[in-house]
Predict the structure.
Amino acid sequence: MHNVISDEVRKDFRKFAFLVWQHINLPEPTPLQYDIAYYLQHGPKKICIEAFRGVGKSFITSAYVCWELLNDPQKKILVVSASKNRADNFTTFTLQLIREMPLLQHLAPRAEQRASRVEFDVGPATADQSPSVRSVGITSQIAGSRADIIVSDDVEVLNNSATVDMREKLIERTKEYSAVLKPLPEAKIIYLGTPQTEDSIYNKLPETFEVRIWPAQIPTQAEFEAYGDKLAPYVRKMIGKLPPGSPTDPRRFSASELAERRAEYGAAGFALQFMLNTSLSDTERYPLKIRDMIVMDVAPDRAPMKVDWLPDYKREVKELPNLAMQGDRFYFPAGHSDTFHDFQGCVMSIDPSGRGKDETGYCIIKMLNGYLYVVACGGLMGGYDTSTLVQLAKLAEKHKVNYVIYEANFGDGMFGALFKPVLARYHPCSVEEVKHSIQKERRIIDTLEPVLNRHRLVFDRMVIEEDYRTAQQYDADNKFAKTLIYQLTRICYDKGALKHDDRLDALAIAVAYWTERMGVDDAKGIAEERQRLLDQELEGFVSGITGRTGGRGNRWFSLKGR
């Protein structure tokens, strides 16, 4: 009987997976997990499995490695992950299964063989420079051993793929796989992944790879078209039988659990982590682009009356961390007028922290001749505590703020009542509460898009640097999502589109304040400023000759408009 079972197990990985689940006291694998298992065994030699977070794709693949060694103990397997610790965990679990499962115990390393969580041999393997299983991080030295199977397990995480440069470096590292893989017909490369950005490296695999996607929900028609031929046939067969949005694996995540995940991750994060949909970066869906803003060094008190925008590659600001989407870049101005003037005003907006992991977002914008100069924008942990209020007051003092506006929050004016006396000690100025009744995402986009499209939003370069730096204090799941630039380029009209929006909301509040005051023609403004300076010079000239101060009654000075 044992031999019959062994023969069945050797021929069908799904049967082996059932025994593994049984051994570790788990319920039988779900139909979707069985489908992934079948694809691991029967798919082509170069595959990419994209499956929703929590489906257990790494767990299944670890069992698959054991099954491959059960069938051929001479095989060499390399496991690569984003971090060495994660790769080592994969190897450790694999070795643990070999030592504990009766069916696999004959594969346990002998006393003289390698047997660590980094690399190990299986008992029947002949002596070789390469271990049976080896784990490395994607940034480690991959070359140095040969492999029949490479398991690239979640090499893309937000920590190493948030910016364009990071993704390019990651792709270069994965190209080293070809130097390790044995030139055999049966040699395999298996990518396991969940996209972290819309510009995922899994979208850039060579055409020799077959990508298969298992989303957490049955896709809508629009989502279905976006997947193309990558959608797993198992999920494709569900379309029409169940309504869109139904769980594809209800034993893993019910409809209510997926709704909780959507609320936790935001619409955009849920689309990536659970729907594996990376096609959402079109212009209509995400309308705000950093290419439409202008980046420059902004002086504390003065600025040019006109700033020219031109997104030319020669003007790209390459030294700034770029968390925008593919192809979106920061640009220096093409030039500016030779006429400078003092800023016409400075406003500070505050989005007080709610509960949970929210920040208190703030933004300070100075205005001149219809141009909005963002001189500070960020987030502070805390909301109504004295430390946060003092930091905000000192920022207002530093930038000589004329007016403070804050968004109404849970406290019904409580923030203003607490902030006003603190502000009065450092920088007395007007404080006002603003309330909003329309959907937040629509309000933010409708406020910022016209200003960006007219290229009237100018960012001090230091603001972008500080925005990135201050967000690095958070954990891996939040340190990019907390940044203003990430929020600005990921917001769409979907309710709950962003996991965090504190800094972006503060920017929108400040821009909205100035929008009503931006009906200024920059050329007219420059002409008026030049005339003012000319009048000032003429007044001085006349005073020097006549000893009198020019004014409206002085015909030598009344030249304005001629």
User: Anything to note?
Assistant: Residues 522-546 form the longest helix (25 residues). The first strand starts at residue 46 and ends at 51.
